[in-house]
User: Fold this.
Amino acid sequence: MEDQDRAARRARVRLVAIGGLALALLVGGGVLLTNAVSGQDASTAPSGERRSSTPHPTPSASSRGKMTPAKAKPMHLLKPESGKDGFSVGFPRTGPGAASAAVYYLEESPFLDDVRTRQQLSAVTSKGSSAYIDKQVSEVRKVREAAGLAPSGGVPGGLTFTTNVNAIRATPLVNRRLVQVWLNYDRYATKPDGTPANEPIKDETTDLLLIWEDGDWKITDESRYRKLRTFPASYDPDSPISWQSGWWQVAHVA
Assistant:
């Protein structure tokens, strides 16, 4: 019976994991939370819940010895100029500024907390995507229910989640006013005593569309922009194909 309930929860997570910012940020956290609470190892979660659907590059013999993300100097993140409701805002209108904003937005996303999710998205979502905030808060609540939690509230048991972005791939669109940023990241769950709750979920990939609006980079979900998205090869630090596809490793600000 317990196995059936667990399978049903996973199925719900899969059903709601069909795109959108908050769900892309949260679905891995939902699986990780379910595993941490139940004591199940994260590696048993179906790979489709934890991995990008983009193909992994396979370097050919002729590409060996060429530049890779691991060989290149990493991109140093730019610090935000200010904050709003506890979240970072205020990034320059440059490619590194958009990439830095995307990394901060992802790493600061409040996993499984619907109230804080609304606060963050209200601070960093474009005016043209205001309906997106309600939609994503609703998705967060679905993920909470799929993990066996009440629809609204914080993370139980003193657990904390940490997201670490490993690499980004930024592409300017629409006269550089719109930038698509792909991010490869790992996610960890930690117990109140500081020890790991279970094995981390690694090598997740998602993308954000950021538009320059009111002096800052804002997340947009408008269909006219989403249709402009591009899809690179998956991130592999040792792959020349990943380098050619535009992936850069990230150096975090100390």
User: Anything to note?
Assistant: The chain is about 35% helix and 20% strand.
